[in-house]
């Protein structure tokens, strides 16, 4: 389990093969992986997140959320 960052992907987004491929490609620290049933969040890479928002920009609004588990515990997500 990560100490600093958590990433959530909606069930619909996690099963969209095109979106899964896009998330795997854009993440510079390999948080996302392709699995037989959709997306795989690679827990050991979560704390490497640089908060670059590339995954948020690649996904439809609300499909991906990046949660800071420290400080003010801010949630980053694309709203529009």
Outline the fold blueprint.
Elements: E1 5-9, H1 11-14, H2 17-26, E2 32-35, E3 38-41, H3 54-58, E4 64-68, E5 75-77
Antiparallel strand pairs: 1-4, 2-3, 4-5
Key attributes of the depicted protein:
80 residues, alpha+beta, 3-stranded antiparallel beta sheet, two-stranded antiparallel ribbon, 3 helices, 5 strands, globular
Task: Explain this structure.
The protein has 80 residues and is α+β, with helices and mostly antiparallel strands. It is built from three helices and five strands, in the order βααββαββ. The chain has helices at 11-14, 17-26, 54-58, and strands at 5-9, 32-35, 38-41, 64-68, 75-77. The longest helix is centred in the N-terminal third of the chain and has 10 residues, at 17-26. It is globular, with a radius of gyration of 12 Å. The mean pLDDT is 94.
Quick one: overall form? globular
Radius of gyration: 12 Å
SSE sequence, one letter per element: EHHEEHEE
Number of helices: 3
Distance between the termini: 30 Å
Q: Which sheet architecture does the biggest sheet show?
A: 3 strands, antiparallel
Tell me the helix content: 10-25%
* Beta-strand percentage range: 25-35%
Low-confidence stretches: none
Instruction: Please tell me the overall pLDDT.
Output: 94
Kindly name the structural category: alpha+beta
Q: How is this structure best summarized?
A:
The protein is of the alpha+beta class. The protein has helices spanning 11-14, 17-26, 54-58; strands at residues 5-9, 32-35, 38-41, 64-68, 75-77. A three-stranded antiparallel sheet has the order 1-4-5. It has a two-stranded antiparallel sheet with strand order 2-3.
């Amino acid at each position: 389990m990560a100490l600093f960052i958590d990433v959530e992907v909606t069930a619909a987004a996690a099963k969209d093969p095109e979106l899964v491929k896009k998330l795997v490609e854009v993440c510079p620290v390999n948080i996302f992986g392709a699995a037989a049933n959709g997306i795989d969040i690679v827990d050991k890479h979560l704390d490497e997140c640089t908060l670059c928002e590339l995954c948020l920009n690649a996904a439809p609004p609300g499909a991906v959320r990046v949660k800071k588990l420290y400080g003010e515990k801010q949630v980053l997500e694309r709203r529009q």
